[in-house]
Queue: 2 jobs
Job 1
Amino acid sequence: MNLFLIRHGQSYVNLPDWSGANWDQPLTDLGQRQAAALAAWLPRHLEHIDAIYASTMLRARETVEPVASVYGQPVFFDDRVREIGNNRFDHAPWGADDAPAEYSNFWASARPFTPVMKTPLSETLMHFRARVGLFIEELVEKHHQQIVLVICHGGVIEFAFDHIFNIGPWRRCEVWTHNTGITHFAFVEHPGREVWRLISHDRIDHLTAELLS
């Protein structure tokens, strides 16, 4: 399987002066242009794909729309690739009426077994990693020798690295991805060897200087 993980375009939650909650915000005008550039570039470099998945969050939905359109493919939306803190500890997304307003007052990787939102019902960093890992392992089973795109979030890509590289609970390196940056992993079956290959990370060939976030 060739797995392409793509971060959404710039959203209002990515703006340095954003003071609202880190919830379901749409793309900015720049984010819309980043998504359009991604959709124009991808088919020239990846002619065929077998499946497209996306986070159910608005910024991922708006990013995947032009991509799915150019490929003429349906999108499989999945709650497991929502950003960290946007699901409860049972992996279900928060509802409109019960979503907590604030993150806890620590960075998630500093306390990986503590709820990341100010409620005991929130997922921890390890719950988040588990749901990302479950999603990836399901893709391996369902899409043997296929090409899969996943439009998701920076945190999802970061913890895909942790899952695939078998990193422990405490992290010492942040894996950064630009908005609409593309990461390519390949699952290969070599008995007695590693089963994953990292082909590339944070590819942004489609972004001009004015489209860089």
Note: Residues 125-142 form the longest helix (18 residues).
Job 2
Amino acid sequence: MGGINFKVIICSAIAFAAAIAAEMLAESGMALIDWEAAWAESRAALAVGMITAALIVVILVLIIRKRGTANRTAENA
């Protein structure tokens, strides 16, 4: 399995520089995307976002536990 190597560091630095550039453009008034949904600040949108995030976390935890159990049984065999 891969770890943190030179390629990961370079790609992360490039993505970080792009994020800084986009934020600087937004602060100067030249946003790349200037759109906000009218419903984005509603309580329903917040609730849907929280429920979606919780479901993603639960699914990821189940996947990680399943893979961990599979790896332990493969090592013991």
Note: The chain has two helices and no strands.
